[in-house]
Specification:
The complex is a heterodimer of chains A (713) and B (70). Chain A is mainly alpha-helical and 713 residues long. Chain A is built from 25 helices and 4 strands. In chain A, the strands form 2 sheets. In chain A, strands 1-4 form a two-stranded antiparallel sheet. In chain A, strands 2-3 form a two-stranded antiparallel sheet. Chain A is globular, with a radius of gyration of 26 Å. Chain B is mainly α. Chain B is elongated. The N terminus and C terminus of chain B are likely disordered. The chains are: A mainly alpha (713), B mainly alpha (70). The interface between A and B is large, with 70 and 54 residues.
Chain lengths: 713, 70
């Protein structure tokens, strides 16, 4: 058969690689900034868009979708073409994909610090950007499947299966979790409320880790480790089991983020069981990666690329063992809400994603620029300072995690909390937070050294934008082998592969989520739970805008140590009007669910006012940033009518025509609070943002005080 | 709390069947994949695992720009 000559598109790989470097730098700089805000809480005094609550989503989004996202596309665009012996389906689509993705990142970098956020972790971006992400993701999909259709190889290598599963699952997760009712151009409310919203969010949140940070990188692992070490993967059979078991099991494990919360017990148990099962495929995959290097460990000593890859795969093994352990209920009781979780994700982020990306880039740049790496020494330096950075980053955070948990749960012999004041814990952690920042600085230093090294590599070489290759086209009339199994057929048919991966993840997703949808969210209602007043609703939106949920949970778990500290544990029925839910996942500060008027932790209006103005004066040793702008800025009520009517459409029982009197009610309630603050010695205008926020905080967790449980229909 | 959650769950008809269905689906599929893997011929597996090494690149330098496929 005649051989065809064609060219691989390296130009698009280069673009994504450079974007990976640029946004990696940005994401890590933001990360270092937020880490320093733990050490110097007034570091960015009065600058609203630099406060922790707004920058933390920027950091996570920048690392996940900008750094790792561009890293995925770099590796996929490079390996897909070569594994299929075909140029990308369309240069135009490649280009739209690249520029579209970068525009989305820029939009995120602008809107998140401005406080435009849906509050759902790793899905904070508001609805217009969500739509843009969907469109660009479809462009990427068409480009990928177009390439698969015009391939010159009969069979599809396992790495590509991981890419396919990534594409289909991320599409499903993104759409389901971001269904929201737009209120204004940059404000929307989640379609789901309370328990449902939490379940959907963590089904998404967990699988964003699975299908954005894990499966595509496993694909890269299965391509780049064999390429770099020049030997085929240890066991191709194992890789197939790895693939199917992983995508099947991963999709179920989301509820382990909600153990001991108001989520139904059966859903929690499913989450735990599947999380434990995940160890098997994860470790199968890790061992497969490491054993590929059997007999080549001498190369690891000399080759910095392999060093990065080995540590990356090891970090993958560590976090995929730790994750299932943390999802055991007894361990989770200790780890949840603490810095342990933060340490866990950074083993994955810094070790697995970071180091695999670095290894890939150190290998790709010399290849594409047809030269040698500028400096092996500097790459080795990067490896060591990066590894040290990971240790200095994570060890102090494990320490803080255990400290938090031990101190939060310790009782005196008489049965009282040993450390009833939350601040006692916070003060203990200060040196560890400083050490963590130092670890981040080391890691970032290594990254900058890599930028220098790769820049000089680019300068020394000459870039091959179009790499020539030859291959025979696929025969049109392919004779099916006799006795072809179903799976073997799948390996030839990308579209079927797409459909079956979708079936695999959709079954898991549906069985996990459908039951909660069947329940009318109004059924398990506590009769005394009422919708928020207009002022409280506005206050809640400010709470979302400032990202308070990044440091404060609103979910008291049914432990004695928590009911002693915070008050009555949280019930599912209390959140039926919460679009979105604001349970949070971390307690840098105390839980706020029972901070409302008349509850165990309630505070006066003037206390809240002073505390928001200068937390350190009211609570000595606090690391909360001050919010002076909320005292200066007027509350924007222009969208109030739209908000009320959007909430009604979502099922919140505001009576028809309530919009007409909402503003009046808002002003009345605001004046009451302002008068109370004035009576305590501080004059403040009733139209300030702080008044709305205080109204919301005073409402939190109070509905239940007069509750009688109503029988479920 | 428990009473509350039990009420919540028992409001779904046939809730017990969910975990059972899930187990059956997963287990059946897993066994099928396992069977396929173990039954696959060695040379076929070798062929697959060597796919990354055959990318058709023969010429190591770029002789031109702006070529498109085919």
């Amino acid at each position: 058969m005649e051989v065809e000559k064609f060219y691989y598109d390296n130009g698009i790989v280069k673009k994504f690689a450079l974007a990976t470097l640029i946004f990696g730098l940005v994401g890590m700089l933001v990360g270092l900034t937020v880490a320093l805000e733990f050490v110097f809480p007034k570091m960015t005094y009065g600058v609203d868009f630099l406060s922790f609550g707004r920058l933390r989503p920027l950091h996570t989004n920048a690392i996940i979708f900008a750094f790792v996202g561009n890293g995925i596309f770099t590796g996929v665009y490079y390996s897909l073409q070569r594994l299929l012996k075909a140029r990308m389906y369309s240069d135009l689509l490649s280009s739209i994909h690249f520029w579209g993705w970068q525009l989305i990142i820029v939009a995120a970098a602008i809107t998140l610090p401005m406080g435009f956020t849906s509050s759902k972790e790793y899905a904070e971006l508001e609805w217009p950007i969500d739509i843009a992400i969907t469109l660009i993701w479809v462009v990427f999909g068409i480009n990928m499947f177009g390439t698969l259709l015009k391939r010159r190889t009969r069979h599809i290598y396992v790495a590509i299966w991981f890419y396919i599963a990534t594409w289909v699952t991320v599409a499903m997760l993104h759409i389901v979790n971001n269904l929201e009712m737009p209120v204004t151009l940059f404000k929307s409310y989640s379609l789901y409320a309370g328990v449902q919203d939490a379940l959907v969010q963590w089904w998404y949140g967990h699988n964003a880790v699975a299908f954005f940070l894990t499966t595509p990188y496993l694909g890269l692992m299965y391509y780049f480790i064999p390429k770099v070490s020049n030997r085929p993967v240890f066991s191709y059979r194992l890789s197939i089991i790895h693939f199917w078991a992983l995508i099947f099991i991963y999709i179920w494990a989301g509820p382990h983020h909600l153990l001991y919360t108001a989520l139904p017990d059966w859903a929690q148990s499913i989450g735990v069981v599947f999380s434990i099962m995940l160890i098997a495929p994860s470790w199968g995959g890790m061992l497969n990666g490491l054993l590929t290097l059997r007999g080549a460990w001498d190369k690891v000593r000399e080759n910095p690329v392999l060093k990065f890859l080995v540590v990356a795969v090891t970090a993958y093994g560590m976090s995929t063992f730790e994750g299932p352990m943390m999802s055991l209920k007894n361990v989770n009781a200790i780890s949840h809400y603490t810095d342990w979780t933060i340490a866990h994700v950074h083993i994955g982020g810094l070790g697995w994603n970071g180091f695999l990306t670095f290894g890939m880039l150190y290998w790709l740049f010399p290849k594409m620029w047809k030269t040698d790496l500028f400096s092996i020494k500097l790459a080795n330096f990067h490896f060591w300072i990066g590894t040290l950075g990971i240790l200095f980053w994570t060890l102090p955070m494990y320490w803080t995690g255990f400290t938090q948990s031990l101190m939060w749960k310790e009782f005196t012999p008489d049965g009282f909390l040993m450390y009833p004041n939350f601040l006692e814990t916070v003060k203990q952690l200060a040196p560890m937070y400083a050490l963590r920042s130092f670890g981040g600085l080391l890691y970032l230093t290594g990254f900058i050294v890599m930028l220098y090294n790769l820049f000089h590599t680019m300068k020394a070489g000459s870039f091959v934008a179009e790499e020539a290759a030859e291959a025979a086209p696929l025969e049109k009339n392919f004779l099916k082998p006799k006795n072809e199994t179903f799976h073997r057929l799948l390996e030839r048919k990308p579209i079927q592969m797409l459909i079956w991966s979708f079936v695999a993840v959709a079954i898991g997703g549906a069985i996990e989520i459908v039951p909660t949808f069947l329940i009318d969210s109004n059924v398990p209602t506590i009769s005394s739970v009422k919708p928020y007043t207009p002022l409280e609703l506005e206050g809640r939106d400010l709470y979302i805008r400032e990202g308070c949920n990044n440091c404060h949970s609103q979910m008291v778990r049914p432990f004695r140590s928590e009911t002693e500290r915070y008050g009555e544990y949280s019930k599912a029925g209390e959140f039926v009007y919460d679009h979105p839910f604001l349970w949070g996942s971390k307690r840098t500060g105390p839980d706020l669910h029972r901070i409302g008027k008349g509850n165990k932790n309630s505070k006066s209006n003037i206390w809240h006012f002073n505390h928001m103005f200068d937390p350190q004066v009211v609570s000595e040793g606090s690391i909360m940033p001050p919010y002076p702008w909320m005292i200066e800025d007027q509350l924007d009520v222009s969208a109030l009518r739209a908000k009320i009517s959007a909430m009604r459409k979502l099922g919140v029982p505001y009576v028809e025509g309530y919009e007409e009197i909402a503003l009046e009610e808002l002003q009345y309630q605001a004046q009451e609070i302002a008068d109370d603050i004035a009576a305590n010695g501080v004059e403040v205008n009733a139209d300030r943002e702080i008044i709305a926020l205080i109204a919301y905080l005073q409402r939190l967790g109070t509905d239940i005080n007069n509750a009688e449980e109503v029988p479920v229909k | 709390m428990l009473k509350f959650i039990k009420g919540y769950v028992s409001s779904i008809d046939g809730i017990e069947i969910y975990p059972i269905i899930s187990f059956i689906i997963f287990f059946t599929f897993f066994i099928a994949v396992l069977y396929y893997i173990l039954a696959a011929k060695k040379n076929y597996i070798d062929e697959l695992s060597n796919l990354p090494f055959d990318d058709g690149i023969t010429i190591q330098t770029s002789d031109s720009t702006n070529h498109s496929d085919q």
